[in-house]
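Escalation from tier 1.

The customer reports that the assembly of three entities below gives different structure tokens on two consecutive runs. Tier 1 could not reproduce it. I'm attaching the input and our single run for tier 2 to review.
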Amino acid sequence: MGNILQGVGDALGLAIQLVLSGDPDLLEIVFLSLRVSLTATAFACLVGLPVGALVAIGRFRGRNGVLIVMNALMGLPPVVVGLLVYLHLSRSGPLGFLGLLYTPAAMIIAQTILIAPIVAALSRQVLEDLHMEYSEQFRSLCLTRLQTIRALLWDARYSLLTVGLAGFGRAVAEVGAVIIVGGNIDHLTRVMTTAIALETSKGDLALALALGLILLIIALGVNAAVQSVRMTAARQAYV
Amino acid sequence: MFGKTLMASAAALFLGGAAWAQDQSIIVQSTTSTANSGLYDYLLPIFQDKTGIQVNVVAVGTGQAIKNAQNCDGDVLLVHAKSSEEKFVAAGFGTKRTDLMYNDFVIVGPAGDPAGVGGMNDVQGALAQIADKGALFASRGDDSGTHKKEMALWGDSGFDPAAASGDWYRETGSGMGATLNAGIGMGAYVMTDRATWISFANKQDYAIQVQGDEDMFNQYGVIPVSPEKCPSVKVEAAQAFADWLVSKEGQEAIAAYKVADQQLFFPNAPAN
Amino acid sequence: MSDVGAMTIASAAGAASRPALLPLSVRDLVLRFGNTIVLDGLNLDLGATGCTMIMGFNGSGKTLFLKLLHGLMQPTAGCVSWGGLQPAEVTARQALVFQKPVLLRRSVAANLDFVLRSRGKDRARTGALLDHVGLARKADQPARLLSGGEAQRLALARALATDPEVLLLDEPTASLDPASVLAIEQIVSEARARGTRIIFVTHDMGQARRMADDIVFLHNGRVAEHSAATDFFSEPRSETARHYLNGRIVV
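Tier 1 run:
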């Protein structure tokens, strides 16, 4: 046991060493992780926010059913998403002609599908709360549905930043989907999580843990950046 | 305004990925042992320097590698389960199977050696002894080449470990490395290919207990995927890679790869 | 407040060519939630001009009545008729100022910009409107950091930005300091002078005396009394209104 725990100290030293040395392979992996997950987050927001807004302000038959499905989809297992995307993008699948399997684009697609429901469900909650406050005033102003949605999205933008962050966190931390559709190909589709899985399977637990620590630091950095934006906004009562 | 910028940059990032997959690159559906042992890290730069062809390796279990190749998601198949490979070629998915290299399987176990199999070179006997004592044994359980080999050896030993699944026989359903991590964590015997074991970094107090039985021989083969079944295959680049591996130069490169001063793979392609 | 010409504040042109909203006619209006009866066969007629104050005890349904008039709610029975026009048009040609102003999470100026833009009005009017309500210096400040009086003046400016023919106000000066109350009253009076019909819910008798042409007194879900303001305060006809004016509780 002592042997294992000593590994944590080794990993910490190794992580610092890796970061300080500016290892090009590591930078490439970190950059790809950020690129894939941030792009997926952007796409998920483009899809998820309008859906969340429509459900938030809509009063239609079957709305409760939609809510249940949306909330359930938040728990989509990454491996299942990965498999579904693989089956579509595989050369023998319906979208195989696009040649996207084992590319960063495939990873972006998988992560977008994984986190779009998270963005939709969480933004629905945020926007519905805000709409409770605004709806009477908006109805008095005779705003159209589109005007209402745009105003809600804009006024909730700092809260929605946190929603996007939740999606990004899920995307950057998942391994199940990207390893299936990306293939963990060195210098092409290897990201932080698949690299961690690989080093673990090679038994290089210290390196795996060091990569994990670096991933954690990146996540901390992104969260801190968003938090500081939010705090600035909060001081101005824009949250 | 904000949305448009977001959309544009997202599209740029997205498409940047597709453009990355250049023409002069092939995908090898490979077993994990060759990838995890670092063999490709050694071989591929040599091949790329010579031909300019970039080789992208997807390392999965042999079973999944074959399925992926059948879905046309690879240009070359490099695995170690001869009968499955021959079926793959017979079904028309591959053009030709060639023996590439071999190493062997070993059974590793904890220093305490609870089943007392240390030093045995009769693998069926060792397995029977492990089963008899009910000593923990961790199996891949994932339809990989190693798993298929292990099941064949159990069959010869006269024991059906499936009956003890979840008891002393533990199927991890994972790759070789993950199974070694799990087995070492629970103090179980594990059958592994020698290359993975030599380069494995989390050995703790484990050592090779059973080796040297010729039934533990582990043959790797290379198969270019057939363009008739899979028109998307990059025929020439795939053939170039397969040809280079079995060429004198490729075979020498395989032999030259060493970890901890030990040769991991022994080239045995038929001379041409 | 300011002496900016009325033309920059309001652009009432075009209203004349449309069918008039007024007179207002309310017939047998009933509003019920489960077993709770809020309005119980209310009838009311209001003329085309002036400032009508609606008074009544807490819980007499003043706020809900105002929302029914504005088309934000549907009555259980009966009808509200603004010149026989469609409800959507009625709402669009009126503005309602709530007791607690709902301000967007944006700057003061952006709150007005938003309304002008979404209603297809000239956004250049933002400055004149802010000037009119005395908030020009606060234009770039976050709206939600305004004081209560400032927030209500911004809400009033927003209401005026839509060029309403009818301005409905729901106790807009409750819990404001005297100076803020007078500022609001002056803005409303100026709107009235430009021809905007004012319907104002209040508990403030001084305010009612200062501003009202006529008083509608609600009690038990009906109009207990509708009189000219001077008559109401000197000689209330109904007993409950007398109690109300004397500060007595009526069950």
